[in-house]
Design brief:
It is a single chain. By secondary structure, the protein is of the alpha/beta class. Helices cover 18% and strands 24% of the residues. It is built from seven helices and 16 strands. The strands form four sheets. A six-stranded mixed beta sheet has the order 1-2-3-4-5-6. A five-stranded antiparallel beta sheet has the order 8-7-9-10-11. The chain has a three-stranded mixed beta sheet with strand order 14-15-16, sandwiched between helices.
Length: 348
């Protein structure tokens, strides 16, 4: 259930946060995002479509296909694309090229669409491209019409055996902020004008949505010292291998750097020794000559972290032992990869 005030403020926030107020005149927006996808991220109320496109929105998989297409060519003028949810390397690889310039946002249907934005800071211009991209790929800070985003821990995440009796005890209605150290993991919660009132005629679902007073997302993230949030995974997509948590998002982000991979999705498969281990499903940039499982695994092992060499990357236990090449990844009508189907394939 939405309010007129919430929809109005969400629409105005898009005008500001996606820089729709171009000069001269109005922006010219290419309509690419379905209006049933989180209300078209509220852009139906923010723009109208014309020729001479300056802005568009698209899911990460749509942008990947767009920028990797053989028909792609240099753009005659800058175009800004609002990208949601996932880090998007395809739009950042061509440094200095007139590719669509990404504006990374994050939100839910319950928040009228986007509710955070990764603000690009002037200080980042001097950073190496890879480091700059890592910062751009964060979900970022709260929109102009919302309160600051928070990352919290809750009772369900607290080990009862390790509770310090001198510390305040958590309850289902208690939200305690995680440390802003980029390490401690918690759940993203939202507050402010552009949160939905609740679910229509479903008071129990509404109660669970707002446990603790904030809108609960189910997305696990860390909180950086500058106040920006960075999603690690959906709670249901975290892979627990030998007691270690593996972020499927982090692993997908690394594998996407392989020059032969177009798209990638990682899910958990059962393992008799480790409990779970990651499996990667990929599509190839050149379907006639796809990379082999051995090639990808060897390449990924070369990207693992080596503290002695001062090298950053992933931990060795994250490298998948199984890589399956598909003609196409299963997707929803809005272009999101259907991991539930991939998990079922992996189970079988």
């Amino acid at each position: 259930m939405y309010t007129h005030r919430g929809a109005y403020l969400a629409a105005l926030a898009n005008v500001v946060e996606s820089n729709l107020n171009v000069d001269p005149g109005r922006c010219k927006y290419l309509w690419t995002l379905p209006m049933f996808h989180a209300v078209g991220w509220t852009f139906p109320w923010s723009v109208c479509a014309e020729e001479g496109v300056t802005h568009f929105n698209a899911a990460p998989t749509v942008n990947t296909l767009l920028c990797s297409a053989k028909e792609a060519e240099r753009l005659p003028r800058p175009v800004k694309v609002t990208v949601a949810a996932s880090p998007h390397r395809a739009l950042v690889r061509a440094n200095g090229q007139p590719q669509p310039h990404p504006r990374h946002v994050y939100g839910l249907t319950e928040s009228y669409g986007p509710l955070t934005v990764s603000y690009e800071l002037p200080a980042w211009e001097s950073l190496p491209p890879k480091e700059k991209f890592a910062k751009l790929a964060r979900q970022g800070h709260g929109f102009i019409t919302s309160l600051p985003v928070r990352v919290v821990k809750t009772k369900s995440e607290e080990d009862a055996d390790s509770v310090d009796p001198s510390e305040p005890q958590l309850t289902d209605d208690t939200l305690i902020d995680v440390a802003k150290d980029g390490k401690e993991i918690g759940e993203i919660v939202f507050f402010g004008n552009i949160c939905a009132k609740g679910y229509y005629k479903d008071p129990e679902a509404t109660r669970k949505l707002f446990l603790g007073g904030g809108l609960r997302t189910g997305d696990l993230a860390v909180w950086h010292p500058d106040g920006s949030a960075q999603i690690l995974d959906r709670a249901k997509d975290i892979i627990i291998s030998g007691g270690e948590n593996i972020s499927s998002v982090a692993l997908e982000s690394l594998l996407a750097e392989h020059p032969g991979i177009l798209e990638v999705a990682v899910v958990a498969v059962q393992d008799s020794h480790w409990g779970e281990r990651p499996k990667a499903y990929i599509t190839a940039k050149d379907p006639s000559n796809p990379p082999t499982q051995e090639e990808i695994i060897t390449w990924a092992k070369g990207k693992t972290a080596d503290p002695k060499a001062g090298k950053s990357g992933i931990s060795g236990f994250m490298v998948p032992r199984d890589v399956e090449v598909l003609d196409e990844l299963p997707k929803t009508s809005t272009g999101k990869i259907r991991k539930n189907i991939l998990r079922e394939w992996a189970r079988k």
